[in-house]
Amino acid sequence: IFLGGEATAFAVSGIPQEADALLIAKLLLFGAACAGLAALVCIVFHNVGHLFKKWFPNRYVCIAAGGAAVVVLTLLLGTRDYNGAGMQVIERAIAGHAAYEAFFLKLVLTAITIGVGYKGGEIVPVLFIGVTFGAPTADFSVWRRPCGRSRYDGRVLRCDKFAAYIHPAGV
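Predicted structure:
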């Protein structure tokens, strides 16, 4: 922002005014699922690097093997959605277009990349993993309704009992 960049922002509105037993039960289950995901992220991030370093004791060979693994997986997937920060995937997930497996694919590719020694962040990938896990999960557990317009571009927001998102069709 200081140097002329723009911050990414998402509009959220439609906080529920009431809570019933079913909503609380769903939130507890969702919270448990998120806790399980957090544990999985920590375990995978920790162990993938150790495995590669065990298989490839030479530091440079380990880095090359990890890079090759990421390239091969990317080619097999046929998309670069899981490489880099992935803000476009986060935006699609918020709009309701997240693939159910997206969180796991990003988790694996990030764990390989960081585990073998490439430098990069962990915060944005964890945000990617969280939103691509949470957005599709909400489809199974809540109802959606119109709740207002985006303050950024005027598109109609749809709300569920967890959050608001931009409706893909804009209606």
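Summary: The beta strands are 145-149, 156-159, 164-166.
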